[in-house]
């Protein structure tokens, strides 16, 4: 058993930013960061386009960024949260620059600004087309300098410890569910261990792996959301899965799809269908730079209409130098598979990209479980509403990491004296693995995962209807039953734990989609093509 003052689960931008702030506020307290993979294997590392932030007073304003965010969110954003994130954003970006993150600059020293769908101005700060890699680098280097941060890799969080583990009945109606720490599967020793913490932050990222085609790396399995749901915490708006319009189409390639950043369209890239027609003007007056929900649906419709598995992104008019200057990584990737962007168009199709819903939090990042905060992609703060504005996610993670930190240090100071029995680890039982054995066949897990991804992609994708959702739910029920049986009888493995979490997340997406009897933002149901006059979050 371990004890720590502050426990941080996840080493993406949300977890690392929060850890750095707490560590500098309390130099004599222990901060423990854990991640189930290598230090930098996160959604953050793959971010391309950049950070949307108001940084050009002559042409841009908070009001414009707020309006763009609200329009993309299609009536469901929390306006107070939008204002907070947009207005606090510039200070947070200055901090990450102070920690060593570099953004591209013009010859005169001013920042280069990119543009993406739904933005009325050029405001996206970026590092070439590998912004996330640069941010992860800077944050990990800064964390390594802190003496009071311990960083444990390859350690899989299984469940949140609450009073349920002390034998109390906990359900959705229990008023004061409390988090005391977590059970983890140590992937080096293969043992389940207990970590007790006074304050815990979940920064576990997204859930793109629930779908067959996704831009997300393999860690994005929705673990944090599934854990909170099991612990009887609140989760909301899970139906709003954002499909990025332009993942590179590579037939036969399995796993994470390579992203072609929206900034390419911001710089003038044009979507064309199989006949070479620039089709976006038929769908929206903002053409290729309409918000993502609109562009992804338009591509889906063109692919179905013309019977193809992809459309084309045309950059042939860019000029090689200009393209390589901003997008060297995309250029190299395309060249590696024989696509010279000056001669050829790039084949692209939509892929699951971002979860707009998640663990419900208030404006300080508090979840519905006491002493448990959630931040970054796993959280639902109210910023994104029914559709996230491009490049608002890194910004949200930084602003909310700061807010979680501000609140957590206040709570910590109170809690230390208020609950002296907390931290008495002996009270919490060790993990009970009795009656379990090594699973006889891995295929039981890998096949169920494939089935889950097929069900979610075919029935709960960009376009939905009631019959598809009902089918999906029936199939998920069966997968759930079979996986629970495995879970009860098998020694735990990360594959089994992730499958279990992904089935839970799939269930929450379908449940949210079934409750939402309208089409809004990213949720489009052909049985209810219009928006309802009842504007509501779906809380599960
Ligand atoms: P992540 O960075 O995903 O980190 C999650 C962490 O949690 C990882 O360390 C993981 O190992 C850990 N973890 C998860 N489960 C467990 C568990 N059970 N136990 C232990 N550890 C666990 N957004 C923008 O704003 N601008 C962009 O340009 C942009 N481009 C993108 C491009 C791509 C290809 C992708 C995939 C996303 C992009 N996004 C972008 C979205 C953005 O990158 C993410 O939303 C954001 O980085 C999420 O950060 P995070 O800290 O919440 O989670
Ligand atoms: C991109 O670069 O297109 C992704 C940006 C984002 O997801 O916000």
What does this structure look like?
The chain is of the alpha/beta class and 540 residues long. It has 3 domains: 2-239 and 356-413, FAD/NAD(P)-binding domain (3-Layer(bba) Sandwich), CATH 3.50.50; 248-349, Flavocytochrome C3, Chain A, domain 1 (Alpha-Beta Complex); 443-525, Up-down Bundle (Methane Monooxygenase Hydroxylase, Chain G, domain 1). Helix content is 35%, strand content 15%. The chain is built from 13 helices and 16 strands. It has helices at 13-25, 62-73, 79-98, 131-144, 223-230, 263-266, 292-306, 320-326, 328-336, 393-418, 443-459, 466-489, 494-515, and strands at 2-9, 31-34, 51-52, 124-125, 149-152, 155-161, 181-186, 191-202, 235-236, 241-248, 270-272, 311-314, 346-355, 358-360, 372-374, 379-380. Strands 1, 2, 5, 6, 7, 8 and 15 form a 7-stranded mixed beta sheet that branches. Helix 1 (13-25) links the parallel strand 1 and strand 2 (31-34). The two termini are 32 Å apart. Bound molecules: flavin-adenine dinucleotide (FAD) and succinic acid. The site of succinic acid has 10 residues, from loops. Succinic acid binds at residues 48-49, 116, 261-263, 354, 390-391, 393.
Q: Which CATH-level-2 architecture of the largest domain?
A: 3-Layer(bba) Sandwich
Q: Into which percentage range does the β-strand content fall?
A: 5-15%
Q: What is the β-strand count?
A: 16
- Which structural class do you get from the secondary structure elements? alpha/beta
Total of DSSP H or I helical runs spanning 4+ residues: 13
Strand count, sense and barrel status of the largest sheet are: 7 strands, mixed
Bound molecules: flavin-adenine dinucleotide, succinic acid
Instruction: Identify the CATH class of the largest domain.
Output: Alpha Beta
User: What is the CA–CA distance across the termini?
Assistant: 32 Å
């Amino acid at each position: 058993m371990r004890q720590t003052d502050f426990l941080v689960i996840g080493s993406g931008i949300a977890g690392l930013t929060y850890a750095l702030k707490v560590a500098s506020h309390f130099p004599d307290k222990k901060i423990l960061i854990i991640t189930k993979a290598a230090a930098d294997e996160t959604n953050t590392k793959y971010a391309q386009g950049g950070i949307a932030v108001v940084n050009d007073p002559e042409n841009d304003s908070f009001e414009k960024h707020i309006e763009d965010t609200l329009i993309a969110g299609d009536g469901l954003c929390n306006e107070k949260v939008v204002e907070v994130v947009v207005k606090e954003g510039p200070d947070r970006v200055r901090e990450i620059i102070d920690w060593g993150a570099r953004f591209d600059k013009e010859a005169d020293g001013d920042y280069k600004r990119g543009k993406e769908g739904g933005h009325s101005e050029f405001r996206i700060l970026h590092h070439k087309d590998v912004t996330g890699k640069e941010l992860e680098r800077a944050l990990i280097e800064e964390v390594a300098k802190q003496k009071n941060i311990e960083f444990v890799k390859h350690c899989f969080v299984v469940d949140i410890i609450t009073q349920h583990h002390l034998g109390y009945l906990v359900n959705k109606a229990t008023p004061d569910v409390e988090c005391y720490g977590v059970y983890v599967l140590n992937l080096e020793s293969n043992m389940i261990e207990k970590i007790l913490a006074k304050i815990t932050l979940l920064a576990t990222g997204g859930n793109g792996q629930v779908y067959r085609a996704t831009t997300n790396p393999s860690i994005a399995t929705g673990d944090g959301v599934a854990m909170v749901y099991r612990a009887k915490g609140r989760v909301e708006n899970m139906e709003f899965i954002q499909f990025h319009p332009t993942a590179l189409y590579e037939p036969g390639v399995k796993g994470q799809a390579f992203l072609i950043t929206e900034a390419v369209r911001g710089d003038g890239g044009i979507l064309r269908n199989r006949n070479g027609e620039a089709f976006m003007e038929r769908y929206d007056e903002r053409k290729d730079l309409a918000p993502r929900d609109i562009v992804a649906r338009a591509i889906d419709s063109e692919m179905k209409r013309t019977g193809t598995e992809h459309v084309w992104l045309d950059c042939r008019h860019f000029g090689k130098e200009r393209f390589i200057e901003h997008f060297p990584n995309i250029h190299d990737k395309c060249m590696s598979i024989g696509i010279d962007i000056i001669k050829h168009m790039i084949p692209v199709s939509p892929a699951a990209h971002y979860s707009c819903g998640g663990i419900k939090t208030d404006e300080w990042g508090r979840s519905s479980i006491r002493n448990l905060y959630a931040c970054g992609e796993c959280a639902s703060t109210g910023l994104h509403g029914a559709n996230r504005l491009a490049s608002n996610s890194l910004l949200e993670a930084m602003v909310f990491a700061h807010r979680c930190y501000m609140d957590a240090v206040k709570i910590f100071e109170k809690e230390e004296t208020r609950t002296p029995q907390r931290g008495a680890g002996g009270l919490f039982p060790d993990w009970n693995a009795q009656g379990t054995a090594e699973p006889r066949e891995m295929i039981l897990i890998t096949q169920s995962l494939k089935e889950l991804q097929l069900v979610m992609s075919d029935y709960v994708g960009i376009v939905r209807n009631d019959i598809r959702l009902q089918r999906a739910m029936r199939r998920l029920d069966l997968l759930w039953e079979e996986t629970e049986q495995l879970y009860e009888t098998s020694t735990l493995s990360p594959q089994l734990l992730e499958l279990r979490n992904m089935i839970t997340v799939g269930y929450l997406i379908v449940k949210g989609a079934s409750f939402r009897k309208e089409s809004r933002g990213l949720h489009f149901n052909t049985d209810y093509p219009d928006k309802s006059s009842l504007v509501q979050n779906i809380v599960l």
